[in-house]
Amino acid sequence: MFLPIISLHNPDPVGQHTRLRPGFYSRTRVIDIDGGVEDQVKSGQEGQLIVDATVDTVFTEYLNRPDDTAESIVDGWYYTGDICIAHENGGVDLLGRVDDLIRSGGENIHPGQIEEFLISHSAIRDVSVIGIPPKKWGEAVTACIVSDDIPAEDLERLFQNSELAQFKRPRIYVFLETIPRNATNKIIRRELRANVLRSRTKETNYKIVEV
User: Which domain holds residue 36?
Assistant: First the structure.
């Protein structure tokens, strides 16, 4: 599948974004994350990237997957599932994936921003932030950390001195030996989430601290 989007530079380590711009003969929009084709966001705001699917450079369907096709292509636009910040020149900053969003208290929380903050700590070797149910008003922000034995209390103090909004701060810390990644070193969040949920009912080597 080829999409008419050209990357201007590659992403840096955990939490950094990628700058993209539309390719030739293509049209893109950034819309409200839960909105429709006409719900475009203003420059500087974030939303989901969609691509005009009526041009020849965009695929027409998923092979033998009509339900996925119907979900992804709506009114002639392909919903990429990418979350971006829109710019006036048509470029976008890629922030992450819709599937990775943590929804809590009516807010959409990007794990990348929290991961970037945590990985700056010298004792943290790897990190992934996920949403774990149940929580009264949505998912609980959960930081999964590979570290050199850093207490959760130290991380709490770290957040207290940060500018990160209160609702973005982790409510659960999970300390583990490794974070699952694929062959391209991307975090496999679905597997990680399943492992953390499983650890609530089965004995594992995970250390879980709720704050």
Answer: 5-97
